[in-house]
Design brief:
CATH superfamily of the largest domain in chain A: Glutaredoxin
Helix content of chain B: 25-40%
Number of helices of chain B: 19
Shape of chain B: globular
CATH topology of the largest domain in chain A: Glutaredoxin
Number of domains of chain A: 2
CATH class of the largest domain in chain A: Alpha Beta
Number of domains of chain B: 3
Largest interface: A-B, 16 and 16 residues
CATH class of the largest domain in chain B: Alpha Beta
Oligomer: heterodimer
Number of strands of chain A: 4
């Protein structure tokens, strides 16, 4: 995903904020900037008069927050009970193997894909499900279906870059 | 007051206090790992659990308020079993290397395991990822030994208000670390070492220089010399079974010579020198009215604090080096010249109550021509180890004097170990400089005492000086904020980074947290100030000779080159 990040613009929305507002600000910054950069953590701390170590401590407490940019295509694999029963763990293993990354959000070397496993996407009837940049893909229970999804992403990139096959 | 029943005996308790506080007052011991006096309890470690009749579970005594008529059992089988299990769980991801651990013997976890009869590992070891942080010049952080009690975090955040470290991550991935899990070296850590004193295990300790020192002592090509800080001599006694607080300077001189040091110098001599330089600097600032109030600069952790958090006050710091660095510079210049020694052959060691001195010795300005002034800094704890390894028994040593030309000291220099001491010593000399006369009473009561912050008006001739004494950098922020918003009535401020001053420094024996020991050390310093006759830096004959033969006068060009320095802003995550 591409982001336009201006922390000062975001902070303007929180005049006279105190430490109670830390989590909403972190969420806002991550939504706009894609992740919480070092600069963002330090700046938010200074804004709220909190030490950077405290801001970082709070942010690392929640799985929601990321400290590195995601890949261009950020994949979430559902690890909820229902998807698990339908074979989500295989899907996750397959994705890791195919992309050569782990489900820790660190993107592939070309910056195209990153991967995270999440507790539940909320589409329990359609498992196993995964989402790419928020777009849901249901019933990904075979390598062929997975390949189709990944191929879609790759050709999208080519389209955007103007590459003609 | 009301009564509670503890182990079938009645004891008194006050409304609002915790069970632990009532038990402690009644002399009933309850083990704790995370409890910190004067701070709000967190109840993190649960080792202080007790049984309260009528309550279903065991309760942590540190965070449960007493109620009238409570029936409490502090060592029932249920309580003891629970505590033992807690210890065994803590040991589940703790290494079994007590034999090799720097804290063996002073580790609270080890003691608890002994006390509760833990004789085998009952949970399979679960090792955390290996994160040994050795990059800081002063402090080693060994995550594998951390039990997440949080005392270091609270010391750093709530007492020192530096907040260099925090709990990061959650659950099994939780770990105490600086922001971004950086190394301490590039964090806002000021190297004060108070976290080491707080740590119940060996997770935090000083970066040891013992090996380098031992190697230098056995190398015939090297000329090893040592200086020791005033706080060190009053802190060794209890560790060697002698009267707490006793000043061991003269036997320490003998001990250090037996260990192989060719010269033994007293940093209290260079503290006297610091007084001369700092008093002259203060007088010139008072006359020109610039960069006031002047801050002392003896405490390297305080200096680093200013460089990081309050760079706007850098001009206010005295340009004087600390006594350690002044003597370091003199040893490799004046002393080498007198002895016709190549300064590169000299291995200059200092024994300090301080971990930040290790950082100070590595500052690029603490040396000349690519040569460091101080080659190794030992904490008081390391010095004790060196003395033990050397098989030295203090009881069998005859007192000896420190070596000339840097061996003589006044009690003013000695006072540097106590909070308020630099102030008292400097005011004595400033009075002499400004009026030509000695103070009527050399003892300045108002600057003495254990409080973290003291201020007073001090009359010198026709001038009224506003002076303040601060110990513990956590206590200095209020003052700095007042100065920022325009306060103008202060002229001279002494700051020591550690709460209690150097006698309670981060390099001191681990028992340092016990207040009566600190008091005994301070009392010993004040007793020698009372009984000895040389009580002012300017009357120190060795200092006078050094000025006559070498330095000319305080703040002369050569003094500025060797004994003064400058500081700069540091860019670290705050």
């Amino acid at each position: 995903m591409e982001y336009k990040c201006d922390i000062e613009e975001i902070l303007k929305k929180y005049p006279n904020a105190t430490r109670d507002t830390l989590v909403p600000i972190l969420q806002d910054v991550q939504n706009v900037c894609g992740c919480l950069s070092r600069e963002a953590v330090i700046r938010i701390g200074a804004y709220l008069r909190l030490p950077a170590s405290s801001v970082y401590g709070v942010a690392t407490f929640y799985n929601q927050f990321r400290f590195r940019p995601t890949g261009k295509y950020h994949i979430l694999v559902c690890r909820g009970t229902s998807c698990h029963v339908k074979g989500a763990s295989n899907l996750l293993l397959l994705l890791c193997a195919k992309l050569g990354i782990r489900e820790d959000g660190v993107p592939t070397k070309d910056g195209l894909f990153s991967l995270e496993a999440v507790p539940c996407i909320g589409a329990c009837g359609l498992g196993p499900v995964m989402s790419v940049n928020g777009k849901l893909y249901a019933g990904i229970d075979s390598e062929e279906k997975l390949n189709a999804v990944l191929k879609e992403c790759r050709s999208l990139r080519d389209l955007e870059n103007g590459v003609v096959r | 007051m009301f009564e509670i029943i503890v182990n079938n005996r009645n004891i008194e308790a006050e409304p609002g206090e915790t069970i632990l506080s009532a038990l402690t007052r009644a002399g009933i011991e309850v083990p704790t790992l995370c409890h910190m006096k004067k701070l709000t309890p967190t109840g993190a470690c649960r080792i202080c659990v007790v049984e309260v009749e009528g309550m279903t579970g065991l309760v942590p005594s540190c965070s449960t308020p007493v109620e009238a008529g409570m029936r409490i059992f502090t060592s029932s089988p249920r309580v003891s079993e629970a505590r033992k299990l807690l210890i065994e769980l803590l040991l589940a991801d703790h290494p079994d290397d007590c034999l090799y651990c720097v804290r063996s013997g002073s580790c609270k976890l080890q003691k608890l395991a002994q006390d509760y009869g833990v004789r085998e590992r009952i949970f399979p070891p679960r090792r955390r990822e290996n994160t040994l942080d050795v990059a800081s010049p002063a402090i080693v952080f060994d995550q594998s030994k951390c039990i997440l009690c949080g005392k270091c975090v609270r010391t750093c955040n709530e007492i020192q208000k530096v907040s260099a470290i925090e709990f990061t991550g959650r659950g099994g991935n939780m770990r105490v670390a600086p922001a971004f899990r950086d190394s301490l070296n590039i964090s806002s850590c000021i190297c004060c070492g108070q976290c080491i004193l707080a740590c119940p295990t060996g997770a935090l300790h000083e970066k040891s220089s013992l090996n380098e020192v031992a190697a230098a002592l056995s190398d015939p090509a090297v000329f090893p010399v040592i200086q020791y800080a005033p706080a060190v001599t009053v802190s060794l006694a209890e560790e060697f079974g002698m009267k707490t607080g006793a000043d061991l300077s003269s036997v320490l001189n003998a001990a250090l010579r037996r260990l192989g040091f060719r010269r033994v110098f007293d940093s209290a001599f260079s503290a006297d020198l610091t007084v001369m330089e700092e008093a002259a600097e203060l007088v010139s600032r008072l006359r020109s009215g610039t960069a006031l109030p002047m801050f002392t600069s003896c405490s390297p952790a305080w200096v680093k604090f200013v460089e990081e958090f309050y760079p706007e006050f850098l001009p206010n710091l005295s340009s004087c080096k600390s006594p350690q660095s002044m003597l370091g510079a003199l040893i490799k210049s004046r002393f080498a010249e007198l002895e016709k020694l190549d300064p590169r052959r000299i291995f200059s060691v200092s024994a300090m109550p301080c971990t930040a001195k290790k950082f100070e010795a590595e500052r690029p300005e603490a040396g000349r021509d690519g040569m460091a002034d101080i080659d190794a800094v030992l904490t008081t704890r390391e010095l004790m180890r060196l003395i033990r390894m050397g098989g030295i028994d203090f009881e069998h040593l005859e007192p000896e004097a420190a070596d000339p030309p840097f061996g003589e000291r006044s009690t003013a220099g000695k006072l540097f170990a106590a909070s308020g001491g630099v102030m008292e010593a400097t005011l004595r000399t400033v009075h002499r400089l400004l009026t030509g006369k000695e103070l009527k009473s050399l003892k300045i009561d108002q600057v003495r005492g254990p409080d973290g912050f003291r201020e007073l008006k001090f009359r010198i001739g026709g001038m009224e000086l506003g002076v303040a004494v601060v110990n513990g950098v956590g206590n200095v922020r209020t003052l700095l904020e007042q100065l920022k918003s325009g306060r103008r009535d202060l002229h001279f401020v002494e700051v020591m980074a550690c709460p209690g001053g150097c006698v309670a420094g981060g390099g001191q024996p681990i028992s340092v947290m016990e207040n009566d020991r600190i008091r005994a050390r301070v009392n010993s310093l004040y007793a020698s100030d009372q009984s000895e006759s040389l009580r002012t830096a300017h009357d120190n004959r060795a200092v006078q000779l050094l000025y006559r033969d070498f330095l000319q006068k305080p703040n002369s060009a050569i003094a500025m080159r060797l004994l003064h320095t400058g500081y700069g802003k540091r860019d670290v995550p705050l």
